[in-house]
Amino acid sequence: MGRPISKTIKDNAWSLGLLLPTLIPLVIFWIYPMIKTFQISFTDWNYISPDYDYVGLENYQNLMSDAFFGKVLLNTLVFTFFTVVPPILFGLFVAIRLNKIQKLRHFFVASAFSSWMTPTVVVSMVWVSIFDTDSGIVNYVLKGIGMEPVKWLGGQTTAMIVVIIVTIWQYMGLGILLLSSALAKLDPEVEKANDLDGGRGLRKLFRITLPAISPILVFLFVFFTLNSLKAYDQIYILTQGGPSGATSTILYYFYVLAFEYFETGPASALAMIFLVMCLLISAVNFFLSKLLFTK
Predict the structure, then answer these.
(1) CA separation (Å) from 253 to 37, 73, 163, 224, 266?
(2) 229 and 79 Cβ atoms separated by less than 8 Å
């Protein structure tokens, strides 16, 4: 016989009660704001006036026909790609080298991890001084070798390069920590057997190392992708989205629309597009990563 209905209801109620401390903040601070944002995306609300009108799909249509939105979308994709792949590759290279060091390995790993632990605002302010046109150390070195100083944060191309460099430097700390830990857990017997079989260098890397640490690689791919899509702090501190929108990403454009131009309706539409974009890219990234690293 099955369990009594009253017992089942009591168990379900008890389980729900245990989940309430988590569900209540989730509903208040995530689900409700998302539903409200979706509603506002169909209005012409200006953030200040209590009154607004529904305009249907007008906000979405205007964004799709906006040339600047196309530029922002391209900036976001370029920034995301170049801040996801390099820190994983560099982090893997450094982690492999560090794992061959017995003494002080933990010290070097902890030192590298400090880049991730340091607040992005602080990191960005330090890098602003490094790339300063007049007094930055980068231009000081260029002058020392007879080259002209570069306006790193004022150029259409160089500004994005600087933002990417800063983000890669910060991401590498987390990559080195997780990859170094994953490599340290590899079965030494399997590695010895592979060495006896002649599997060294790249052959060992693709046959033994990458499949063994594939869960960490998949996690880093997805995590870095989401982090880069929602990057804001370093862009605001370093370039304020300039020059001429060269470093503006979707999230930064959302901030400008909502809190500088007070175009809350279009900003909400942009937020919903951004949400769908994050879900799609994360899904594709996850399945591709699983396909590549779990063979």
Answers:
(1) 16, 10, 16, 20, 11
(2) no
d(CA 252, CA 21) in angstroms, rounded, equals 32
> Could you report the per-residue pLDDT of 68-117, keeping only the tens digit for each?
999 999 999 999 999 999 999 999 999 888 888 877 888 888 888 888 98
* Peptide linkage before 243 cis (omega within 30 of 0): yes
* pTM of the complete model: 0.84
Winning range, highest mean pLDDT, from 16-30, 65-79, 211-225, 274-288: 65-79
Q: Residue type at 274?
A: F
Query: Exposed/middle/buried for 112, CB within 10 Å: 0-12, 13-18, 19+?
Result: buried
Write the DSSP symbol of residue 54. Answer: B
Give the N- to C-terminal CA distance of the chain in Å, as an integer: 45
pLDDT tens digit sequence for 155-185: 888 999 999 999 999 999 999 999 988 888 8
Sign of torsion over alpha carbons 20, 22, 25, 27: negative
pLDDT per residue as tens digits for the range 182-201? 888 876 655 555 555 555 65
Do residues 250 and 229 touch, judged by C-beta distance below 8 A?
yes
161: tokens are 């390069």
| H-state helical runs in the chain | 5-26, 32-40, 58-64, 67-82, 85-98, 105-117, 120-130, 137-144, 158-184, 188-196, 202-204, 210-212, 214-229, 233-238, 250-259, 264-293
Sign of CA dihedral 100, 114, 76, 292: positive
Q: Which tokens sit at 98?
A: 């560090």
